[in-house]
Amino acid sequence: MKVLFAVWELAPFFQVGGLGDVAKSLPKSLHRLRVDVRVILPFYKALKLHKLQKKEIKKFTVIYDGKKEEVVIYQIHFLDENIPVYILKNEKWIDIPSRDTFAFYDLCVYEILKNNHLSWTPEVVHCHDHHAGLIPLLIKHNNLKFKTLLTIHNLNHQGKYSIDVIKRTGLDHSKCRVIQWEAKKKQINFLLEGIIHADLVNAVSPTYAKEILTEEYGCGLDEIIRNEGQKISGILNGIDYDSRDPAKDKNISFNYGVDKAIEGKKLNKTFLQEKLGFTISDEIPLIGFIGRFESKQKGLDIMHKMIRRVNLQKFQFVILGQGEVEWEDQFLWLASFYKKNVSYISVFDKRIASQIYAGADFLLVPSKFEPCGLIQMIAMRYGTLPIARATGGLKNSIDDKINGFLFKKYSSFELEKTMKKAVEIWKNDKKKINEMILNAMKKDFTWDKSAREYIKLYNKLVGNFDNK
Ligand code: NHF
Predict the structure, then answer these.
(1) For the chain, what is the domain count?
(2) What CATH number is associated with residue 419?
(3) What pLDDT score does 464 carry?
(4) Residue nearest to atom 3 of ligand 1 (CA)
(5) Which pLDDT band holds residue 48 (cuts at 50, 70, 90)?
(6) 202 alpha carbon to ligand 1 midpoint, in Å?
(7) What number does the ligand 1 atom closest to the CA of 151 have?
(8) Quick one: pLDDT at residue 184?
(9) Is 453 found in the same domain as 408?
């Protein structure tokens, strides 16, 4: 089975969110399951190759905006696996991302497939999010034989651009199913085109795959997605067990596995309390939050309200995240008033993130919606119990009162009630909490499980592949 992954983030080279982690880990697992998977992404200036050698394998030209553009394909390899990664270089349209970058990138991928520039022909082109949304359209309308799978990582980011962008690709835009209201706005929606033209579509969790069919979660596309319903499914992401391992993580002060979890977490908690300038005590629950500051999604408003309302003497909160400036200011302000009980760290730092995963008692994930969410799985691997809203992948990965805590209604009161309940159990029933910690750590979030599900989808597209 040959699969080309078209994606715009790839950890550790270039990453904005969870997509970069998925693009790094899923190919590795597929590769281990004998899929010949290769990754193709734009070579932005921001892409950091560090010491990795790149090899030029081809130069070709595409016509964009009526002009010939030269594109260079370089090849690199993942450090630890022999997976080819192709990066596409063009100074004008790719170096610095603009509203044309994804159209240009998608056109390049299409040209590469059409002309076999890689001297390797995939059977499935696996497109991720709106950035690769035009690829299925280009393939279908030009009658290429490749099958396409589109993975929706976040429906809220749709990639809406002026219709001129489409014209610049040379594609006759009457061929795009630009929906009436879109045509009026003379706009193209990349994700929508991907959903309509891909042979199969999946969301990054089974619950999210159902949620996006509803008005509440459909981000304006629910009606169209319902029409395409028969080709939509959900596969829960995994996490990278090699790099997310409390027994090996170099960023934490005390390593521990399941056998030393309770003791190890205690030591890491003391370390974190000291580092944050909090009172060192095991009587006060230490509660973390790690995430992008994106108010539409991450539940910052209900978390902020809840923290302002509770008696802060009884809790310690550590919040790590950056993004929307107003929310950064709000939490900065809160932390500056309650230094002993609230700490806000606005610069994302992997080391501190690990120290929170290892040292906190609980992790808040109050998202309004969460396609999959990786932080709750990482936290669980480190024995930190998530307190999360029952939505998307949070609902699929957390079992209420078994390995975490879930609440349904999006409200600061529900969050507060659930958090207080969790803390009450934590204070009065250590046996139960310790059991939950072990349950969380033992839960299987390996990528192999998800990779097998992806192989089933590829099989649906191109027939049976034996990966045994
Ligand atoms: O886990 C990777 C990530 C998801 O919920 C996350 C999100 C973006 O919003 O699939 O993509």
Answers:
(1) 2
(2) 3.40.50.2000
(3) 66
(4) 18
(5) confident
(6) 13
(7) 10
(8) 77
(9) no
Residues with CB under 6 A from ligand 1: 17-19, 22, 153-154, 204, 237, 370-374, 393
326 against 184, higher pLDDT: 326
Q: Does residue 467 have a pLDDT over 70? A: no
Taking the centre of ligand 1 as the mean of its atom positions, its distance from the CA of residue 423, in whole angstroms, is: 28
Same domain for 366 and 335: yes
- The reply to whether 213 and 295 lie within a common domain is no
User: Is residue 245 situated within a structural domain?
Assistant: no
Question: What's the pTM?
Answer: 0.95
Look at residue 323 in the predicted model and tell me its pLDDT: 95
Q: Tell how far the Cα of 260 is from the centroid of ligand 1, in angstroms.
A: 31
From the CA of 129, give the closest atom in ligand 1.
11
Residue 302 C-alpha to ligand 1 middle, in angstroms?
20
CA of 370 to the centre of ligand 1 (A): 7
Residue nearest atom 10 of ligand 1, based on CA coordinates: 153
Say whether both 28 and 66 belong to one domain.
yes
Q: What is the pLDDT of residues 197-233, one digit of tens each?
A: 999 999 999 999 999 999 999 999 999 999 999 999 9
Residue 232 lies in a domain: yes
115 and 139 share a domain? yes
Does residue 250 fall inside a structural domain?
no
Q: Which of 237, 290, 294, 394 to mutate to test the pocket of ligand 1 (most atoms within 8 A of CB)?
A: 237
Task: Please check whether residue 62 lies inside any domain of the structure.
Answer: yes
Separation in Å, CA 123 to CA 2, 146, 235, 293, 462: 5, 6, 20, 38, 7
Same domain assignment for residues 458 and 440: no
Determine the structural domain holding residue 193 and report its residue range: 2-238+448-462
Domain check: are 162 and 270 in the same one? no
Angle, in degrees to the nearest 10, between helices 134-141 and 190-197: 50
Cα 392 to middle of ligand 1, angstroms: 10
Question: 110 with 182, same domain?
Answer: yes
Give the tens place of pLDDT for each residue, 280-292.
999 999 999 999 9
